[in-house]
Amino acid sequence: QSLVTMDKAVVQEVRAQIANSKDPGTGDTANGTSSAGSVPLLQPKEKILTELARLVRACGMADPFQAVYVTTTPLEALPTVLLLFVLHYVLRMEFDKAFGTLVRRRGSDHLDGGPLVTGMACLLRQFHPSYTKELLLYLGQYVRAHLQYAFSNTADGGMGPG
């Protein structure tokens, strides 16, 4: 029970520090001040975090999909690269109601929707939440553009795309 309480307290403190951390897109902190010379996140508590993580894994309480495995410097083009990756593979799949998941359209494609979605979620969790927000904004813009194109062609008497 005490390990659960300690884990929740540390997670809450980390979330509070992340909320106040530098946004990689703007270079500003959440409160609007510059943080170019700031100390890395949780540096003095590294030993406690390492030991807590080891104990949580040993007790079977760890969730590998929620874990942050590597910290990186900001990657400006990451949301754009992920957009291209998602579009490349999602366009090769379709939703199957019987399975309740994405399945490949052609038998020659070696794709599976479940691992693709799980991998993307795990990858996005490794970076600042602004990357996820930017990727979702790009995907929303893609959908809006295609809907506008489809409806503009049907209004003109065309058959729409495809």
TrEMBL record:
Residues 28-37 have a biased composition (Polar residues). Pfam families: Strumpellin. GO terms for biological process: actin filament polymerization; endosome fission; endosome organization; regulation of actin nucleation. Residues 18-39 are annotated as: Disordered. InterPro entries: WASH_strumpellin. One of its GO terms (cellular component) is WASH complex. Belongs to the strumpellin family. PANTHER family: WASH COMPLEX SUBUNIT 5 (PTHR15691). This is Uncharacterized protein.
